[in-house]
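Structure ticket #2291
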Amino acid sequence: MDSKSQKWTEEIQAENSLMSINLLEVWNYRDLLLMLVKRDFITFYKQTILGPIWFFVQPIFTTIIYVILFGQVAKLSTDGLPQMPFYLAGITIWNYFSDSLSKTSTVFKDNASVFGKVYFPRLIMPLSIVVSNLMKFAIQFGLFISVVLYFTFVQKNIHPNIWILATPYLILLMAGFAMGLGMIFSSLTTKYKDLVFLLSFGIQLFMYATPVIYSISSIPLKYKWVVNVNPLTGIFECFRYAYLGSGEFNPFSLLTSTFTIIVLLFLGVIVFNKVEKSFMDTV
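Resolution: structure written out below.
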């Protein structure tokens, strides 16, 4: 066959510009994405006694500890809301963000052997992480909904509202934030290995700069700006306000979070795209 008449489905080039992000190629590899998501979910609970039930155990025990430590001992304000749904709301969405961030931040190191042997769009890996964590989030979110229904119709002391329709958007923002920040750290850890330890410690500290265990109203006015610059603040406050019906939710803060996350995600993709071309030399 004449080489001029051949039509190639893929073309791998040695050099690309920094801004060359082929999203169509990522879409063409969607089957690989689904396979990686399935692999992550199965390997998580394979050879365990309780299997997926572990997804329930962690938030339940964490919520109980928070109720005792922060609710009963420290007596932090929950805006008059029952402590169980208040803490569970923060734990549910924080678990999704922190898990996605920590796993995305080591994507180069964890998959170096695969990247060195097989070609595929490298963005598939961080995408598979945020998507596979959605399944764990869905299970824990189901637990949270059951608690919300109990306190809404039995105890009748929380009042969900129309903002629950924004839930998919809030999840998308958290996924984008975790993926963008994670790709930046993943790119840096290919050269500076000790950043992995710094990140694991930083994620723990970052939780206290996010309204997971407290409400915005309980923070002194002179320190509120510290929490408000956190892109997650608007997301967490909107989530609590939507399902529990109380809190200092400001739609403008959600708009600010959206803009910040879009910029960070764009920056993360660019840095990731740059490092993927040469990371095998440093890993």
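Closing remark: The mean pLDDT is 84.
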